[in-house]
Amino acid sequence: MAQPSFEFALGRISVLSTHLLSASQLRRIAEAGSTKEAQKLLLETGYGENAATEQELATGEIDLIIRGQLQLTRKRIKELTPDPELTGLFLLPVDTHNIKALLKARLLGTSADEILRDGGNFPLDTLKDMIQTKYYEDMPPVYRDTLNEIESELGREADPLVFSAMVDGAMFRHAKAIMDAKHEKGFIRAYFSLWADFQNTLSLIRAQNLHWELSQLRLVLVDAGEIPRTVFEECLDTPPEQLGARLNQGAHGADLVQAINEFAQTGDLGIIARRMQEGKMQIIRLAKWETDSLGPIVGYLYAREVEAEALRLIFGALAGGFEAELPEIYT
């Protein structure tokens, strides 16, 4: 089956984007007197596309409604995209979550069904079967090799932190392999390189705080960044106030230095994570206006994910009796 053209995909995305919740709609929901009233206001906007069951509506299962909308969004993205491989890179966090959840559930002898997410690159039933049977030959090479290695590690010692880091590493290696094969040099490469460089910086500082050995740091460093992994390894003993000078490399070097300096002044590691999210969001914001790339498609997916985050914050705040702080995009 032929993939849709960019023109067709952009036309459909333009229509779908009109159904995103506006800042004023979210504020109105946030100002509701109860979670029940907020749910009523949310459903009146058409959110969830009437897919929620009567039981979900009756019990106020808002997270199921949010997950249902995200599932519909991911399904549409897969149907619309002219390039499933590159678009699929933005669904890898779903796969990563599911793989970790299923591995942990198998180790504990429990079920992960309630926390699994639909809409990743790997169908859930297939993924469940592979992890249960420990047969990974039908997965992409990076994931196949990584999961086989994890199974070998689990045979010796069941350390969730180790296999979690290995799954994260597989995600970035797989993304890099796809981008290299597709000769991707646009916003998708920029997005993953920024993500990797910031993530490696976070891992480096955590390793310093925990007094890790070099072998432990190497386990959590990821590929796809512009800063070589060896640079992070060489910085294991570098004081935070000197890290900026060592890591000022690549297209995002200046932003990374600013985040590191803010951390050095405040001691708040969360600053680097927030700057990373802001940088990723800015790349998507700029790309969503491109008419000859996947930017508008990925932009719509990203907007739905931010929208879901905002709704979870709102309903959590209403349930807890405090005021929700919405993501910056809605302020």
TrEMBL record:
Entry keyword set: Ion transport, Transport
SUPFAM superfamilies: V-type ATP synthase subunit C
Molecular-function GO terms, alphabetical: proton-transporting ATPase activity, rotational mechanism
Database matches in InterPro entries: ATPase_csu/dsu_sf, ATPase_V0-cplx_csu/dsu, V-ATPase_V0D/AC39_subunit, V-type_ATPase_csu/dsu, V-type_ATPase_csu/dsu_dom_3
Pfam families, per the entry: vATP-synt_AC39
Family designation: Belongs to the V-ATPase V0D/AC39 subunit family.
Record's protein name: V-type H-transportingATPase subunit C
Native species: Acidaminococcus intestini (strain RyC-MR95)
